[in-house]
Records
---
Amino acid sequence: MIERLVTLCFNRRGIVALVFAMVALYGWYAWKQLPLEAYPDIADTTSQVVTQVNGLAAEEVEQQITIPLEREIMGVPGMHVMRSKSTFGLSLITVVFKDGAEDYWSRQRL
């Protein structure tokens, strides 16, 4: 089968050259259409929820603040990953949204 394909390409050199030129022109056109940025933004769209409570231990912060907030945030559309950390008097929840999510839209949803 490969032998027939190679033989066909040798017999029809003009068509092979034309197809190659068309693919090369399309590649050049697609390359020209790419946006040019000095520092392209490759980071995911993320938002953070920071809650500060004085006088609560890490376990109390997790049970009273972090877990209820996580349950509410789980219903946010477009969420990809959620990470949380509870320390003495502080709850940090980081939400990563799916590709293509707008920054403004993601903050409004939280």
---
Amino acid sequence: MPRRITVTAAGDALITTRMPEYPDAGFQDLCGLIRGADVAFINMEMVLSNYEGVPVVEAGGGNASAHPAVALDLMRMGFNLTAYANNHTLNYGEYGCLKTLEVLAEYGFTCAGAGRHLAEARRPVYLDTAAGRVGLMGCASTFANGHRAGAQKHDTQGRPGLNPQRFETLFVVDQEHMDAIKRISERTGVAERQQHAIDAGWLKPPKREGEYHFAERAFIVGEEFGIRTEAHEKDLEGNAASIRQAAAVSHLALASIHAHEQGKGQEDPADFLVQFAHAMIDAGAGMVIGHGHHAMRGLELYKGKPIFYSLGDFIFQVELMRQAPSDDYEGLGVDTALDAGQLFNQLFNESKAGFGSDRKYWETVLPICVFEDGELVELTLYPVTLGFGEPLPDRGIPRLATGALAGEILTTFANLSAPFGTTVEVDGPVGRVRL
């Protein structure tokens, strides 16, 4: 008999309030799907310190915290596997990061992607189920530089934080504009300062032939204007090594990455993200789970393995956070006399902009992936709505979509997946991926 493992995955859990057992069918049926899987993954994007710890300045869009008990609610929904590598990991400093890891372990979550030092943050973790053993490596490409974990040395303590997957960005211009950039750099004195830093050993020189640095950006001449990204080689190899380790001692290895970065369009994954996903599967991953973009991106089947470039938000309750530090108010240009509820109401509702104004941030899919002996044999998609346009206390809570909305969500995901050569057949309230 083949070893059969069912995996489901959700995107970001921006959960700020308790999640009771809502009696309606949309919520209950969704939880039934999650509980029916052997492995149920979700990205934990809250600091579970109940706002304790020193809030940092570079908070990745706002300091996000919640009561530790929300982890218990996620467990009750059926989730048992999580990653804690994202742009909010260190919102409340090292204390908040380590407290969250402690809480997740206490409530029984298997968690990857963060730790007391880089080796701990990068190492794979394992979930043992009746169906088999599953390994997970978690990382993030979107984070403030000080949030990445640091390696231990024989004489120096490591730094708590997340497992990074850094990347390099190249801006492609034509020769005329490259010459203009060089003239600006030379005439403003930037070129002279930059060369002095290189000569003194404080700054590394460009590593590619024809590459030119200006205003902390790397430029190169090409046939078409654009932005290219490449995965940081050392991080890529370190994360691939973790996947190889997981694949060697488990029945199925999973890779998780939190990435906001886009390609040519908002729904297109950045070049480095495609490079990363392919490298993880080449290293032995059976599935790559992307999140962070807050909206859906497409599905690619690479060598028969699923790559979800973004599963968007699954729980989205940032509007219900009880408090926020002064830096969040200052960054948004909002009066600090407002309480957090007024702050987010002004940001999301009164401004008629951002997350509150676009339905795409409030819709996603829940994939159910069936593997037999490590090979994907079935992939079904269930449409999920977070209640766009509902009253504030009600929205952000996931429920199975029905009727016309279900078809619209599935069709959107099918269209996003088509450029990767993936066919999603909409069959009433479900989507089926042609393998």
---
Amino acid sequence: MKPILYAPAWLALCTMVTSFRSPLNLNTRYATANTYRLLVVKSSYELKVYDSSGEWLATYPVVFGNKDLGDKLMQGDRRTPEGDFHIISKKVHNKWSRFLLLDYPNAESMNRFNQRKAKGLIPKDAQVGGGIGIHGTWPNEDYAIDGYQNWTEGCISTKNKYIQELFDWIPVGTGITIRR
């Protein structure tokens, strides 16, 4: 008799644990009626999608490059840049499913880079880097996202099924804030 009493609680717990995203899926109603805003919170390994009114629509699990989660200092440090950016292009990617390219480096990130260089925090011959975006994983390697394994060179990576959703509904020009 007791196992029957615990079954509903167990089912509810399993549903909560696996429901990472909002039940409000990204769909054509939102794609045509709203603009989006993305927020990446590195400390919680989340990419959140908001509509133009600020309503939360979905949350996706993500991973990054360097495990210390600091701001990108220079090319090759494997860190994900922090600040405000925009998606400037979208393409199908032969390794990582889909790729949403960000406008890194922008004026804000170049200013921080040059200030750090002037203060001697990075080498004088350092380069700022580029090619930062949001993409999927290698085929059949979504487990890297489940295990929060930071593996990129500074990009943001999510599961292939999630990058497909984002690719389909998030337009070029969408703003994205990345913070620690």
